[in-house]
Amino acid sequence: MFKFISTYRLQISIIVTFLVLFLLLFQSHNEQGSSRIQMVIQTVTYPLQASIHSVVSNIKNLWNSYIFLIEVNQENKQLKQQLLDMEEKLNIHLEDSVQFRRLRDQMLFARNNPLIKIYAEIIGESSDNTHDIRFINRGSNQKIKRNYIVIRKEGLVGRIFSVSPFQSSVQLMIDHRNRVPALIQRSRVRGLIYGTHEGIEMRQINQHAKIKIGDRVISSGLGGLYPKGILIGWVSEIRHQPHELFKTAILESAVDFNRIEEVFVIIPEKSDSDLIVD
What we know:
Elements: H1 2-7, H2 9-27, H3 36-112, E1 116-125, E2 133-136, E3 149-151, E4 156-163, E5 168-172, E6 179-184, E7 190-195, E8 200-206, E9 216-219, E10 231-239, E11 246-253, E12 262-267
Antiparallel strand pairs: 1-2, 1-12, 2-5, 3-4, 3-12, 4-5, 6-7, 6-9, 7-8, 8-11, 9-10, 10-11
């Protein structure tokens, strides 16, 4: 034993000295009450603690941002839906306003015009692309008959082509089968209106007739089918070749046939039909 101590005396002294210093260091405290060993540990572990704290803080911030974005997204969806609802209500009000003004003008026309008329709404159109036909919600139950004339405030629309109890078909002026005797209101020059599917033309105009762009064209009343004096349109172009006996006038129609929604059916004076207006 003594031999071992003698042999390793220096090493044992160093180990004992370190143990004593360690115990003294562990038991001594600083002014704040923390042991020195704790201070050493805290100093050594601070970078790791700081890194962990930073990572945790970033994760927390990201989570809070995610929750915030979810709430903002939900709020945006609600605001978008509210905006769509408001736009729909606005469109309804605008449509009601436009429809009211349109119907008011047509009804004032019906009231101020002496002809007896039945109000009707357009409910459909022919699926046949070669004919220009519209369907209205009035028929024989409302005393409507074939060849009754259909008009609007703007002018001549066409004639009743066929009738059933609850609806009728209207042959428009632009139908290629349509023929209407007409005259230039200014010069009283006569001609015949033809439908071209794309529009209307006044043909069989005397080659010496004095007509010009902008002349107003009305129904002449000849033939007894169309009443006299209903506006048809205005001359927009004049076509004539020297070797031709007649002129042709391309007309700008008074009625926009792509936008009509309601019409009036004229009841002849000789008819004892009752006026029906809804």
